Amino acid sequence: MTIDVAISAAQVQPLQVRGKLVVVIDVLRASSVICTGLYHGATEFIPMNKVSKAIRYAHLKHNTFKTESVVVENDTKYHNDWANLLHINKNIQPERTYKKNERRLLAGEQNGFKINDFDLGNSPLEYTAEVVKDKTIVIITTNGTHAIKNSAAAHELIIACFLNIDKVCEYIQEQEHDVVVVCAGTLDQFSLDDALCAGNIIANLVAKDKEIELTDAAFAHKTLYESVENKDLKAVLKEGCQHYTYLENNGFSEDLDYCLRKNSCPVVPKFFRYIIAL
Ligand code: MLT
Question: Distance from the CA of 98 to the center of ligand 1, in angstroms?
Answer without folding.
Answer: 28
